[in-house]
Amino acid sequence: MALHESAEMYLETIYLLTQQSDCVRSIDVAEHMGYSKPSVSRAVGLLKQGGYVVTDEDGFLSLTDKGYETAAMVFERHTVLTRLLTIMGVDEKTAAEDACRIEHVISDQTLDAIKRFLEK
């Protein structure tokens, strides 16, 4: 399953929420993202089919190894890009918003170059 931007956003949200609590449900994702419960349920179903997410008998969401790896990668991209943009003088809010859009299309090569640049 090739992930689209929206699927990556759902994974990143689940990743962030699981950093705050062990108990994450679809409703938590919906509230965090500002989406409807049916939209989140459909997305979670697709992520389950793709092997990125599992739910337990109580409806709590967990990332699979594949889901965790993907979500961590998206989050890293977001963090690196936000940092770069703020260093360049962009305000934090705008930098985070722009990073959120860029993180889904930037190549690994460019991201690696940015990380090397930031290490200097």
Write up this protein.
The chain is mainly alpha-helical. It has two domains: 5-67, Winged helix-like DNA-binding domain superfamily/Winged helix DNA-binding domain (Arc Repressor Mutant, subunit A), CATH 1.10.10; 70-119, Orthogonal Bundle (Diphtheria Toxin Repressor, domain 2), CATH 1.10.60. Helix content is 69%, strand content 5%. It contains six helices and two strands; from the N terminus they run αααββααα. A two-stranded antiparallel ribbon has the order 1-2. α2 packs across α3, α4 (65-87) crosses α5 and α4 (65-87) packs across α6 (108-119). The mean pLDDT is 93.
Element layout with pairings:
Elements: H1 5-20, H2 26-33, H3 37-49, E1 53-55, E2 61-63, H4 65-87, H5 92-102, H6 108-119
Antiparallel strand pairs: 1-2
Helix pairs in contact: 1-2, 1-3, 1-4, 2-3, 4-5, 4-6
Relevant terms:
5% strand, single chain, mainly alpha, 2 domains, Diphtheria Toxin Repressor, domain 2, 120 residues, Arc Repressor Mutant, subunit A
